[in-house]
Design a protein that fits this description.
By secondary structure, the protein is an alpha/beta fold. It has 13 helices and nine strands. Strands 1, 2, 3, 4, 5, 6, 7, 8 and 9 form a nine-stranded mixed beta sheet that branches. Helix 2 packs antiparallel against helix 10. The N and C termini lie far apart (52 Å). Mean pLDDT is 94; it is low at 1-5.
Length: 304
């Protein structure tokens, strides 16, 4: 009974299936590590919640302890995060992970407390690719007029507008019905998200654009974090690192097997895309990002 009374319940929410998703892998590793390191003092409950904005707001007001979320809506709370969402900023996974784990990435996390949030650690979604139900996309011209669901993210929306598509922001929870009903023609997400959510059932074409690297974040509530001792914070950080590593390992595994799996499920996959052509068309958007975002942070991330 004394053991039960001493237990502290921790809740972590994320927007993907709890089993077999990269967020699920991260959350489970966080849970197992924290429960083990704390000798059962902390007991972690993992829940799914498709509304990322709602989760962030809940963490902010202290009704939720942690969320794993894409960066999509986070820029609305911590504007400095928008810098990591710029298209073609990172060359590959090694570049993205290294830059975000470095002092540059940590300097962005340092902006969270002033907004009533704790930026615990960078996690990962992966490089985003385009799917649609109307046509095979090989180049920017093929994107003209496509209604594409994007996250509620001004950086992403500007990129799609510049490419001639019609960005339609909506919560992830609304995506599948919108694709089924033809409210939007397409969407863009990393391979692990496309596989885990069976997007192949409502989309025929996949183009490996790799147009933007999509980080994720483990965000904590100051209501919990601020009452932890230094030793407890260290324990939570160890659990967060275990979660990050498991999350990234799952993304890597899904990337390796996912494209073949989507082909097997019947999607038409376009692998040859001219990155240079997309970057050329996006030049006006890049110029705008330099003005609107922190140009120094952009440069440091790009050159890392």
């Amino acid at each position: 009974a004394a053991q039960a009374q001493a237990q502290t319940e921790i809740t972590i929410q994320h927007p993907l299936p709890t089993a077999n998703s990269h967020y699920g892998a991260g959350a489970m590793a966080f849970k197992e590590t924290l429960e083990k390191l704390s000798n059962g003092k902390y007991r972690v409950t993992i829940q799914r919640n498709d509304n990322e904005r709602e989760m962030i707001e809940s963490v902010q007001i202290g009704t939720l302890d942690f969320t794993i979320t894409s960066t999509g809506p986070v820029g609305n709370f911590v504007p400095e995060v928008r810098a990591v969402d710029v298209p073609f900023l990172f060359r590959d996974y090694a570049h993205a992970r290294g830059a975000l784990d470095s002092e540059v990435g940590q300097s962005i996390l340092a902006k969270f407390p002033s907004k009533g949030l704790v930026g615990v650690i960078w996690m990962e979604n992966g490089f985003r690719h385009l799917t649609n139900s109307r046509r095979d996309v090989h180049n920017p011209a093929d994107m003209r007029g496509l209604k594409v669901r994007t996250m509620e993210n001004q950086v992403h929306m500007r990129a799609f507008s510049t490419l001639g598509a019609l960005p339609t922001p909506m919560a992830f929870s609304e995506l599948i019905p919108a694709l089924q009903q033809g409210t939007v023609d397409g969407q863009e997400n990393p391979i692990p998200v496309i596989v885990a959510n069976n997007i192949d059932q409502v989309q025929k074409y996949l183009t490996l654009t790799g147009h933007v690297y999509s980080p994720a974040l483990l965000i904590g509530s100051p209501a919990l974090w601020d009452r932890l001792s230094a030793a407890e914070k260290d324990m939570f950080m160890q659990a967060a690192k275990a979660g990050r590593d498991a999350n990234r390992a799952k993304v890597t595994a899904d990337e390796e097997s996912g494209v073949a799996e989507l082909r097997r499920r019947g999607m038409t996959v376009t692998t040859q895309v001219s990155t240079e052509e997309f970057q050329k068309v996006l030049a006006p958007a890049f110029a705008q990002y330099e003005k609107e975002l922190d140009a120094n942070t952009l440069r440091r991330l790009r050159d890392w």
